[in-house]
Automatic annotation (TrEMBL):
Name the record gives this protein: Major facilitator superfamily (MFS) profile domain-containing protein
GO cellular component: membrane
Domain of life: Eukaryota
Entry-linked NCBIfam families: SP
InterPro entries: MFS_dom (IPR020846), MFS_ERD6/Tret1-like (IPR044775), MFS_sugar_transport-like (IPR005828), MFS_trans_sf (IPR036259), MFS_Trehalose_Transporter (IPR050549), Sugar/inositol_transpt (IPR003663), Sugar_transporter_CS (IPR005829)
Origin organism lineage: Eukaryota, Viridiplantae, Streptophyta, Embryophyta, Tracheophyta
Membrane topology summary: Multi-pass membrane protein
An example molecular function term from Gene Ontology annotations: sugar transmembrane transporter activity
Keyword terms, alphabetized: Membrane, Sugar transport, Transmembrane, Transmembrane helix, Transport
Domain Major facilitator superfamily (MFS) profile: 55-474
Organism: Lithospermum erythrorhizon (Purple gromwell)
Family the entry assigns: Belongs to the major facilitator superfamily. Sugar transporter (TC 2.A.1.1) family. Belongs to the major facilitator superfamily. Phosphate:H(+) symporter (TC 2.A.1.9) family.
Length: 487
């Protein structure tokens, strides 16, 4: 199968979208602000980018919901325990059961998105999250908290797969990296908002705020098209043409692009239905290795341990504990925005390696601060090293390690195995999240220095993995990427 057969599938407009060759935020401004001599080109260019941006904004409401769910437990621990007389073990169950729900959501996410469509999957996820938040809000005892937290976990488990996949399938290739990165940016925004709001409003009111992103999502889905690639895959040809035209502009000539997508889908239909065991065939093993490997390294560099317990880390180093929570909330958002701007300019692999290098240095500095404290060396420098290390770690992770694995995951799998492969990759991510968050306190008690040095070692392995295994996908169509990897 020749790569050229499917080239420029996302480039449906010729003449109105040349400006997409420039970096992400620069593209948007230039496309919207420019005046083209040809009226049709102007209409198509603005119409296309406007609908793509609107569709992305609606989808990432699910990402914001993801962050809100994850960030909810940190600022509410003492209030919930006091109001409902929960033991530490009961609240720990409440905090961690979200990962169990997310694992189940991850297992079913690919099948759900393939069966009822990308928009249908997002609707279902929003429904589970709303039900979960209401259960938390009306809780008077532990079991209803558990049910609510489990439902929100299941919802975000599906969101974590379907949102980046949907964005990747609707976006032009030169905006795909930047737009998909908004997924991570909005997760960070949701978590930071929950952290900050949780310091000024009650835990029940905070639960109600988690419903708003779902409401915006459900309303927005009425105004955006379904993924054209999914519509073509399930044989809805009329809807496929309408969705593609809506994304590319009403006056755009979509004949060639539609034919190329249809030809690719027809080729995939000739292949047998994908099963989990099929992922281990030689032609798919590299894609699976890349997807699973990136998720393993994303988690085992320690993000959930360091992020969830940042305040405890700062307190152990001799600083006020609330410094960690506030700093964590504030610093992620602008750094993640920088990562979004760099994604389509620098490329995925260089950004990943720079990010992993920064997390290594952050872990090393934090580990060194605890080494100095344990051995009575340079005690006046311990707090400075600790805060510098943690903030450098969080900044570096946010600029690349947080987003790049999700972007690449959405790009590397052919559409006929994307469902089962995506479910596997997301499940691995949630298993890693659970393992790191569960073991962090035990490891920290064993050796605070050793904990951060182990994470630093995984950061180094991430750099090697990116250099040797991970391909550069910048500027390529999804079909070009998948054909090249599966050869």
């Amino acid at each position: 199968m020749a790569i050229d057969q499917f080239k420029d599938i996302e480039n449906g407009v010729s003449g109105g979208l040349e400006e997409l060759e420039h970096p992400f935020l620069e593209n948007v401004n230039k496309i919207v602000d420019s005046s083209y001599e040809d009226e049709n080109d102007n209409s198509d260019g603005i119409g296309s980018i406007a609908m793509v941006l609107l569709s992305t904004f609606v989808a990432v409401c699910g990402s914001f919901e993801f962050g809100s769910c994850v960030g909810y437990s940190a600022p509410t621990q003492s209030a919930i325990r006091n109001d409902l007389n929960l033991s530490l073990a009961e609240f720990s169950m409440f905090g961690s059961i979200i990962t169990i729900g997310a694992m189940i959501g991850a297992v079913t996410s690919g099948r759900v998105a393939d069966f009822i469509g990308r928009k249908g999957a997002m609707r279902m996820s929003a429904g589970f999250c709303i039900a979960g938040w209401l259960a938390v809000y009306f809780s008077t005892e532990a079991w209803s908290l558990y049910v609510g937290r489990f439902f929100t976990g299941y919802g975000i488990g599906i969101f974590s797969y379907v949102v980046p996949v949907f964005i990747a399938e609707i976006a032009p290739k030169n905006l795909r990296g930047g737009l998909t990165t908004i997924n991570q940016l909005m997760i960070v925004s949701g978590a930071s908002t929950a952290y900050l709001l949780g310091t000024v409003i009650s835990w029940r009111t905070l639960a109600l705020t988690g419903i708003f992103p779902c409401v915006f999502l459900l309303i927005g889905l009425f105004f955006i098209p379904e993924s054209p690639r999914w519509l073509a895959k399930v044989g809805l040809n009329k809807e496929f043409q309408a969705a593609l035209r809506k994304l590319r502009g009403k006056n755009a000539d979509i004949t060639e692009e539609a034919a190329e997508i249809q030809a690719y889908v027809d080729t995939l239909r000739s292949l047998p239905k994908a099963r989990l065991l099929d992922l281990f065939e030689s032609k798919y093993i590299r894609s699976v290795t890349i997807g699973v490997g990136l998720m393993v390294f994303q988690q085992f560099v320690g993000i959930n341990g360091i992020g969830f317990y940042a305040s405890e880390t700062f307190a152990a180093a001799g600083l006020p504990g609330n410094v960690g929570t506030i700093a964590y909330a504030i610093i992620q958002l602008p750094i993640s925005l920088v990562g979004a701007m760099l994604m389509d300019k620098s490329g995925r692999r260089p950004l990943l390696m720079v990010s992993a290098s920064g997390t290594f240095l952050g872990c090393f500095l934090t580990g060194a601060s605890f080494f100095c404290k344990e051995n009575g060396l340079m005690l006046e420098w311990v707090p400075i090293l600790a805060v510098s290390g943690v903030l450098l770690y969080i900044s570096s992770f946010s600029i690349g390690m947080g987003a790049v694995p999700w972007v690449i995951m959405s790009e590397i799998f052919p559409i006929h195995i994307k469902g089962v492969a995506g479910s596997l990759v997301v499940l691995v991510n949630w298993l890693g999240a659970w393992a790191v968050s569960y073991t962090f306190n035990f490891m920290f008690t064993w050796s605070s220095t050793g904990t951060f040095m182990i994470y630093a070692g995984f950061c180094l392995l991430t750099i090697v993995f990116a250099m040797k295994i991970v391909p550069e996908t910048k500027g390529k169509t999804l079909e070009e990427i998948q054909v090249a990897i599966c050869l």
